[in-house]
Design a protein that fits this description.
single chain; 230 residues; alpha/beta; Barwin-like endoglucanases; 3 domains; six-stranded mixed β-barrel; 6 strands; 20% helix
Length: 230
Amino acid sequence: MFDTRPGTQIIIELAKHLGVGRYFAFNLEEANHLRLKPLGVSVEELKGKGVLFVGAQWREGFESLDTPSGKVEIYSSTLEKLGFPPVPRWEEPLVSPDPKDPHSFRLLHGKQAFHTHAMTANQPYLMQISRRYDLIRLWMNRRRGEQLGLNDGDLVQIKSLVGEGKIRVKLTEGIHPSCVWLPSGYGVFSRHLGTAYDVGLSYNDFLPTLFDPTVGHAMSSEIIVQVKKV
């Protein structure tokens, strides 16, 4: 609607400016055709009917998975061939809170059920839920908070090696004493998103650039922060 663009179109345009446009040498219409082709549906059919049921009728279970064994693999021979542990195992964190420093915590994050990543923060009705139930806060174990002289709702400063910010605290028994927790989806920095701008903090602003060597996922729990009362 209005002057917004589909995510795929944004990616195509960004690729051109980043010098990798040759890998995205297609337009939005072609991308939609390619997405629908395996389903035996055309873009025109979908536009005409709005909703289409595709594929075989669902039934419980499965015949085969796209794995070497055709089954759910707890022991992965593929990972083993690549030199990684074939079975998930415990590994020590890269960093841990300083047990002698009362201000030192591991920073965790997670979603709230009514928001989708950062895409819905600017939706007024959903943001009103966040405000009405006072959900834009940093969770901290109540005992640890009291040791820092904090009361529920106090403003605190949170600081990592790469970022810092201020947010109100929520003291609760629902989190491990060594950790603090930020709800994801807030901390929007675009002034054009008037509802979400400068509301809460973004977890990504505190996150160093670390990637898991096995699957390439961001190692988003390897972060220590200092939390102090403002």
